[in-house]
Amino acid sequence: MEFANPFAVLLMGVLAAFILYNIRRGNLGRQLFIREVPGVAAIDEVVGRAVELGRPVLFSTGLGGIDIVTLQAITVIGHVTKLAARFRTRVIVPTVDPMAIPLIEEVQREAHAAVGAEEAYDPADVRFLSGEQFAYAAGVVGILHREKAGATFFFGNFAAESLVLTENGQRVGAVQIAASPDSGQIPFFLATCDYVIIGEEYYAVTALMSGDPVLRGSVVGQDYIKLVLLGLIILGVVLTAWSILQAQTEPHFLSRWLEGAGG
Amino acid sequence: MGGSYPYPPGLGQEWLVQHLFRPLPGPLALLAVFGCVALFALWVWGMMRLSSGGRRRVTAICTFLAGLFYALAFFLPPGNVATGSAEIGGQRAKFTADITWDEIPDPNPPAPPAEGEEPPEEPSWREPRPIERNLTGRLELTELANEPTAQDGRDFLTISGKQNADGTWALESLGPDGPTPLVATSDGGYAVTTAAGTGRLQMRVQPAANIVKGYEAPLANALNILGGFAIFLGLINLSLVHGRTLFGAKPGWINSLAFFFGLLGMIIFGLAALKYKDLDPTAPQPFVAAAYAVMFDGLLKPLQSTTFALLGFFIVSAAYRAFRVRTTEAALMTIVAFIVMLGQVPLGQMLTAWIPLDSPWAVLRIETVTNWLLVTPNTAASRGILFGAAAGSFALSLRVWLSLERGAYFGKEF
Amino acid sequence: MMVAPATVETVTSIVAILATLAILSVVYRENPVYRLFEHIFVGVATGYGVVVIWSNYLGPGFWKPLTEGVWYVIIPALFSLLFYTIFSPRYAWLSRFLISVLFGLGAGQVFRGFTTEVFPQISGSFLPLLPREAIGETPAVTWWTVLDNTAFLVTLLSVMTYFFFSFRHEHKSVARTARLGRWLLMIAFGATFGSTVMARFSLLIDRLQFLFDGFGKLFGG
Predict the structure, then answer these.
(1) Neighbours of A234 (CB within 10 A)
(2) Domain residues for C53?
(3) For residue B411, what pLDDT is reported?
(4) Nearest-CA distance from C39 to chain B in Å?
């Protein structure tokens, strides 16, 4: 079914309310605690390394088009470009989606303007490398070697090409940070990158970077969502055990609600 | 020939398709295109006259409405179900039915192509036919109604029908004796006759509340066109980067020349070869088709698979790097990786082949351990990561939808 | 001009062998030949993308209907012009408008996405933690299964705990569970890594096989 059942409507409403409630708490000036993520703390330091070496930064947004995952990466591009542009260090962004070009250009232009480095902005630092996975990988490998990247960022959704990218980053001696909400490529990032931001940490990056109360509130809201999911799992396991004791073979109501929820 | 629609038609969709969004003869179509261009220019002019705050508000509202479309398409009930109950011979029976949207069949369907004749090419537009709402359901008369051996007319009764223009339903039951119309009773029910006796059926039909779902398909088409034209952004970007190198005769210009050779060759031969789709590979080929074959099978495919195959080397060096990191976590990962790798090759499996398969220690055989690692901890951990990532993407989507997002692209001056 | 199929095949083989060798050469070091083929690769892949967009979307979805009088396909094409306003500082905000709306469309799909992706996996985690005999078609739950299910749930719950951001990990129980979660994550990642190695080798062996076969065909007659 392509439509929500009443349970899905209710749960989505509750989850959205948790996010909005916590954003509001943040906006009202509540000091909300969120823990550090080591990879995020390292972002500034890694850019600094490239600046010291006088080598450009390479920032790959992976295989995603213009979606939520890429949007998060683009916010990080803004931050990294600002840090680097202050010292006239370039941030090269290869992309697979032509629709992402205007976003990245705009963010980079603004980042340069914000630190008074308008003259250093070059639209050719955004590089479209075809929408094909391995042509993109081959192109990034070429850029890494030719430009002698001093630092690399891999933020977004990646597939098998991840290891081609990060191994070549290692070969040119770049300090590397990888971040992906998807678990698939994390093992390869862990083997080849200096810092790895895993899973949901990806969505906490901007809140930690900026300390913005709205973003912090939103991250706290995410914890509420996970608590709800955790509660549902525990309740479901208890109900399953109960139905075993009752010698029931039919799935219990929570299973039925979740499985008929849409999809 | 009636197309089946899984979803209700959108609000006003049938009217729009029949009256506004239909093809026009040549000159009128051209006029309509110019009309659209003029309206678009007017819209741009209006947008440009907005103040900075106005631009922000209009963007926020349009972003919200865009998201609302898909939210409503999901949340509004489709009205695909009818339920109810019947009293037949003193027994209560359950009734459930699926509802489908079907095109009213064309009274003069085109003749099917004759034997050996090519079917005519599908036109890009065809006259839409009005859509009617049909229902198929069953009355469960006995406990056995869901068993495979259940008999029509004894254990269950099939009921079908379509909605009249006034919203009432014309129903008939399909018993073993053929279709029998059900008679609507004054209390809104229907009189039913079965082998078990007569009775009354009360039916509740979900209203077709989803007034946007039907627009999903046309929207997807529009977005394909919109996204398709964005490719020029990529071409402009590439031409800027490589044109600068090539025409500035900078070092590496030969690479940029190679780039343009690949790009233009593929576009020209690829587009020209589109009309030679079903060539006999053993016969001489036209030049463009041959050139396209060389570009596709000689360049694109081997370049793709060889770049992929580089992973054969890189996975070894990555494993070596992981092995050198001396932390507990890295060690844990490397050891498990090593076990799983061994468990997948015959040489590794030989290591524990001496444990008899029927002994209680058989669970320690390396292929069993490998399988367990891949099924239990790996699935569980991936699921844990997925739940967290889903929470994060839910929160970010909500912020974007409601224009609460802060960061480089959103939350800036317009 | 017609070309014999044997010629096409020979030329294709030679080009493919050159391309394969050029890409493999990057394992030793980045070099001019790799660089040349890397540029050709991005060129042909982009060109192929253009051909696919034309033959799948713009040809049948835009140009053909337009020439048949379906005038309204021009509307999305006009809106796509807004992408190109980035080249003019005055109009650039319109590209931002368009992209915001596109993000809005994506954001609205999150409800369906979350429901279809997450809900079945939650109900899939309702694993039996008590043994039982088989009843009808419902299979038995053995003590082994219970043990396996316990390991599954411990991994799932501790990994989820690891990702909590707003709980101070100073609480001993939270800190310990999160630490356990981190270790179990590493075990899971190790399993993914190990299971990929052989598949990657076989890709490489495939390519080497292709080279040998190609040389054989060209020079062996």
Answers:
(1) 14
(2) 1-69
(3) 63
(4) 5
